[in-house]
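Hello Y.,

Per our agreement to keep a running log of every chain we model this quarter, I'm adding this entry. I've kept the format consistent with earlier entries: sequence first, then predicted structure.
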Amino acid sequence: MLLLASPAALQVPILLQTDRYAVVAKPPGMVVHRNKFVSRESVPLLQVVRDQLGRSENAVHRLDGGTSGCVVFAYDSETTAMLQAAMTSGAASKTYYAFVRGDASRLRDHLEERELKDDKGVVKEARTWLDCVAACEDSEEHGFADGDPGSSLIVAKPHTGRWHQIRKHMNGHSHPILGDAKHGNSKLNRWWREKYGLQGLGLHCAALEIPLPDGTVLRARAPVRRDLVSILVTSAHPRTLLGAAHAQARPILAAWTYPGRSTSIDLGLSLIHISEPTRPY
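Predicted structure for the entry above:
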């Protein structure tokens, strides 16, 4: 579902702002740029940010319309080019939370190296680090013939920036992103929407850490939106948090914080602070 309200009525959280760039938290259901695949009435994030900041800017990168999280905007073409180069360097780190179908607990500290076609059909190398930090098995509590749909939380760090890279890599393991109409199951996607209020894709760009040429580091973290938190912590079936001693999982999950009210939930790994922003996100 794309957002159709007037730009003046829309506001997005500003995660970081300098005199050269800003990082905002994109909601699901909003495209970054207007394109031929969305209606003319839909409001792109670019327009919302321009109106909110009162200045012109360029989107440094994009997220899919259904994906939420960190998006970087630059105020001039020189900064845009600098940030784009920095984001594609080997030193840049982009962390996503992927909520996927089924029990993906076998994907621990896994580097997926599988070529993918880009949006023009050209095959290119693609690498994504994947780590399952929470998973539950299917159950039979909700009337599905094959049991209640299980789900998993994957921490994903793309090492390349291919079109739909995380979505395609997860689908290749038969664990499509929840809500993914292209690769998932429409019945199960509808169940997640109706049961837990899933909005858009179960994919969230949670954090960016981008070393810049001047020696500074762009660091930004986007709050985990409420519908994804609901899937993680209020699911009707038992959920097992994996890897109590796993060095990567502990700081990643413990970093789920955001200014404003927060809820502390002990899921067996550590005390995890789930964001509860003062306005819906």
